[in-house]
TrEMBL record:
HAMAP family: KhpA (MF_00088). Keywords: Cytoplasm, RNA-binding. The keyword Zinc-finger does not apply. One of its GO terms (molecular function) is RNA binding. This is RNA-binding protein (KH domain).
């Protein structure tokens, strides 16, 4: 779980201007084992993290799901 949180932080910091504003909180695993990660960035960086038509956000979710599969986890990434 910690590894996944660090991965999400690293990806987000690579996209934003205000790297110090990047925060990730993690909810306890749901009954089905899914872990929800909440990514928060500075308001001015939201567009960089979401991308045109949500393409960047979708790519972030794909990377996180791929990493989760390697660790037998299910993840959801919420941005905002």
């Amino acid at each position: 779980e910690r590894h996944m949180q660090e991965l999400l932080i690293a990806v987000a910091r690579g996209l934003v201007e205000d790297k110090d504003a990047v925060q990730v909180t993690v909810d306890p695993a749901r009954e089905d084992g899914t872990v929800v990660y909440h990514l928060t960035v500075a308001e001015g960086d939201m567009g960089r993290v979401i991308g045109k038509q949500g393409r960047i956000a979708k790519a972030i979710r794909v990377v996180m799901r791929a990493a989760a599969v390697r660790q037998n986890e299910k993840v959801v990434v919420e941005i905002g």
